Amino acid sequence: MYSFEALAKEFSGRFNTKHFPSTVPQLYEPAEYFLSIGGKRIRPVMCLMANELFGSLHPDAWHVANAIELFHNFTLIHDDIMDKAPLRRGVQTVHTKYGEPTAVLAGDVMIVVAYEYLNKIGSGNLQKILSIFNRTAREVCEGQQLDMEFEKQQQVSMNEYVHMITLKTSVLLAASLQMGGILGGSSEGNQEHLHAFGKNLGIAFQIQDDYLDAFGDPEKFGKQPGGDIRMNKKTFLLIRALETATDTQRKELVRLMKDNPEDKVQRTLGLFRECGVDEWSKDLKDKYMEKALQHLDDIAVISTRKKPLRELADFLVQRDY
Amino acid sequence: MYSFEALAKEFSGRFNTKHFPSTVPQLYEPAEYFLSIGGKRIRPVMCLMANELFGSLHPDAWHVANAIELFHNFTLIHDDIMDKAPLRRGVQTVHTKYGEPTAVLAGDVMIVVAYEYLNKIGSGNLQKILSIFNRTAREVCEGQQLDMEFEKQQQVSMNEYVHMITLKTSVLLAASLQMGGILGGSSEGNQEHLHAFGKNLGIAFQIQDDYLDAFGDPEKFGKQPGGDIRMNKKTFLLIRALETATDTQRKELVRLMKDNPEDKVQRTLGLFRECGVDEWSKDLKDKYMEKALQHLDDIAVISTRKKPLRELADFLVQRDY
What we know:
Two copies of one chain form a homodimer. By secondary structure, chain A is mainly alpha-helical. The first copy, chain A, has helices at about 5-15, 25-35, 40-55, 60-80, 95-100, 100-120, 125-150, 160-185, 190-215, 220, 225-230, 235-245, 245-260, 265-275, 275-300, 305-315; strands at about 85-90, 90. Chain A is built from 16 helices and two strands. In chain A, strands 1-2 form a two-stranded antiparallel ribbon. The two termini of chain A are about 30 Å apart. The interface of A and B includes residues 104, 107, 116 and 138 of A.
């Protein structure tokens, strides 16, 4: 059994290879380029770890892990087009570097190659894995659509926002774990706990992400906070603030969003603090994290086998900031 | 055994249903909208007919036919974005009606649902069908990329153009037939003939399409000819003309493309005729059609069973204009 770091290193080493043929470089170089800018490869490693929870690594787990990472990158390439994002990880996005038409196609061919990896799975598990993969892929598209809708809407309720985040972010973590569990020979009950662990972990992670974008230490966070506030992006914090603010506070918040003054970030953060959304979001994150860990606890294997997944959860969601 | 028309009607009746859930109508309505604008449903019907060549219709053939048609529509939605096409079949394209981000996602979710249909196939044939489907999907993306590249290039050779058309158009016809053959229990040898039949038929069809866009009777063709010429689109005719023209003719052709005079279509057609590309393209189409029909002949089943595919070939590629 490997630690989280060891599996992450092993996966990255294996994934760091050519995934596309050389036949049409105008199409495949942009796809390889995007993969080369890296990433934490969290999702495929979750799949491998979930497999190891129940038994030694199934050779098919590497194929499924590749498929998951390619699918994730397919969504990023297309999301960047939709969001008109010029940069990702500090380098040019595919549509910025190669143009939109090629970026659409590079994403398209990437999801197809993801399915090519899935089709290397032995026939015993293929149908089951495909079924989870397809449903999840559909849900991720639904989440992205809702995210775009919500950005245009004046009001979004907390329930709606949690639902969107679940689809856009959490279900892929959940499915990665579940698929790994299947390859490890997990029972249905344990698969459900794995899925629920990933789903709640994903929400906790997003709450942390929203929190750090507002209140993060620029030294540790790696970028200047306030990006979401400047863009009027709907986040856990903004939605909570709008829900709990007094009339005066709400009007001030809305005015800041509309007028974009110089000190918008600072004044919005002040209002967030007045509404107590900083403490509230820490509590909410802890609540989801506890739910996640409860499901991990409930998986019927000896607890020493759960150590890598526990490490991963702690790596993703720091509980002490 | 059904005739081509009967199968086309039966398929359209079955396909004319909701393919997407109601959960996120902002995403799924655009997808259903695009399917509702119709189409000849040639590819799925080819799959059904190829199945029937060897035996009665396998229940899985309907799933594969659905997947093929959804995949084809996925490519159309994304191609329309890349080509900035405002209309298809006389109505608004998805990105024109719903915006580009939603059109990207509607395409994405459509290919996922295509894979959901494939995953309904019994496990005996799943891996084989998926393998053909995936390879073909990749090739269609390659073809679209080459098509876009060629439009920017000054010179494209006839071989390059045939290769691009093969990828962009023909391989999906070929794969539809081959997948149908597999479900009908066809031998590998017969599958290869089916594939080659579809590939050559696709090229013949494209040559006809290019010819009709230049020389077609507007009454029969349904639209004013010359669209490709006005857009300087690379076609079998233009590439052949540039390859065989005298220096004077080539200069005149290039000048017409650059200057876009009022009488551009008429004068280009004159040059096409001078270079004999009208007769040449009929001959070339006949050559590919004969190759296609030879492969149909070579399939080892009694010839009466081939009648529907023969009808389809004649429907797609008229030999008397």
